[in-house]
User: What shape does this take?
Amino acid sequence: MKNILLILTGGTIGSMEHNGIIAAAPAGKCRITELYQKKYGDVHFTVRQPLNILSENLSLCHWETLINFILSCDLSDFDGMIITHGSDTLSYSSAMLSFCLRHLSLPVVITAANYVPDDRRSNALANLRAAVIMIGIAQRGTFTVYQNDGDTGCTVFLPTRLCEADRFGDHFSSADRKCIGTVKNDHFIPCSDTVTLDEIARAKPPVIAGKLSLKNHIMLLRPYPSMDYRHLIIPEQVCAVLHITYHSATVSAAPDNSVLTLMKQCRQKNLDLYLASFKKKNHAVYETDHLLLQEGAAALYDITNESAYAKLLLAYNGCADDPHQWIHQNLYFEIM
Assistant: This one.
């Protein structure tokens, strides 16, 4: 019988519904494990709950608590680790956890749910079962598993390529439109044209020396038409700015009110400004991009918003001697 460390953090998979209100279940009431043991009963879960929040309330201090707790655990007696999480910020935590836990000697599987476990529409049990199957298959590495509505199996994603679920179908997807594989009928079916389990299992050095501390913040901005940069205020704790681009890797560079306005404030505060994501395969750039790069903006290539954000947080909080170089290294398959 496998011994699995089950890390609960709250989210829908760890919640209950009462009178139409969904809230995190009281600590110690883990309905999903009860359902799992009733149906399968083939593993022993050691349950720990360092967090108990709805994931839309996730903040940097929660990442510190979660990751430092995991890094403090004696994992020698476990076959693997499952982390349950809320779906709203699943893609962000998947990226951060992958970078911070990539060196662990056991497989780590992150999962969530669309409805509370007792709801007949919920994929919570299917996702937890797929996570258990992956622990039996993988030697090591970090994975995110999730069954999208209408699918007959659970998709196994590279966590650093996972994109936020869409707002209408609540479907998760990978930025490269690929996946590691699928868990269906308790069997793992690998995809033939992406990263293999053997590649994932190769040893990687730890990113964090000691405890994770995220005191320095990254300001994340998304563009929209007529965005007024003149009223943006960069807080004191911000150490770099990440500006997401449109799909063509562009943002406004109009002379009167644009990213150029933001760059002036960044220069005054001696802050780096990053644009994500540019396309390496496309050598030509729009004149707006050319102007911004000439003015000192830094381009990040072929990376999701979530991985870029997590990576910059780590880079500017002591995990890199030179953030400008480190940010372009491929830590856990995030650069496509």
